[in-house]
Give the backbone structure.
Amino acid sequence: MLFVSLLFAAPAVVRAQQQKPTLPSVDSDPARSPDPETPTQPEDEIHKQGKGFVLQTEVEEVVLNITVLDGKQMVQNLKGDNFRIFEDGVEQKILSFQHVDVPVSIGIVVDNSGSMMRKRPAVNKSALDLILASNPEDEAFIVNFADEAFIDQDFTSDVNKLKEGLGHIESHGGTALYDAVVASADKLAMDAKRGKQVIIIITDGEDNASEVNLELAIGRVQQLSGPVIYSIGLLFGDEMSHTEMRHARHALEILSAETGGVAYFPKSMEEVDQIAAEVARDIRSQYTIGYHSTKPSNVPGFRKIAVEASAAGGGKLTVRTRTGYFPGPAKKKKTQSNLTSK
């Protein structure tokens, strides 16, 4: 297993200040901390488990946002007793169950690199359509990123303000996707008014400019008990090599799968609006289920979560949620975000 420290500030800048992000480097020594006053054995550690990454953190109540599918159709008529939750193979007692359209805090994170110039008008329309199809009480903020990440609209429910934030198109430079994800997760942790949180990524390329890697980005999101990530990868056209496309697709799939979301890969811009509508439906159709682990919190090790859902007739359904967690010795405070509004 791989152990790395995640004690860093979120990489972001304010467009008005044009301030460079400052992220300390993390070398290959897993015991090294960017902060010289930080113990070399941090309380929180990221562990690599199989194909994914989960963060060790104490969870008083494990809360799962769950999407249930019958084929490609969402299932929305289930009750609590239609679900079974297992942690490391041991069935857990469900303590809370909710299936209502609760307001959500959303970070819309859009690639503003040079290759996106011609795609942005269609992307902006789809992003606004997604907001219009969401709960009217949702709040959202806009992050545009190239080789730096900028917040162009702070939290608001005003569609006109979100439209203006999306309209800040200055396509240039590289793709610092992971930095933008980290900064947006910190923004949600610090400032979101809604307990349920989502990041929606729209990009057309492989990360080539971030100061953190994929592993650290996933770990940071999970350290914050962070948002479900939906990814829309515009990986078509002649701008990318086959290898770049494969790497970009893999990264988006991992970011989404580890948080309980899903990655979409349209074959043309004409499909993006339909995907945005599907994301909005998915967010509004989820079940929220909570349980307390039967294991004491001081028992270390990866805890694998498996959720089963059965239809009224007894048939099994497809369930999508996060895959597990590591318990931690102490409840951690959220780190302050550097992603600030104008």
About this structure: Residues 1-59, 329-335 have pLDDT under 50 and may be disordered. The CA atoms of residues 191 and 224 lie 13 Å apart. The chain has two domains: 62-96+287-325, 105-284. The radius of gyration is 19 Å.
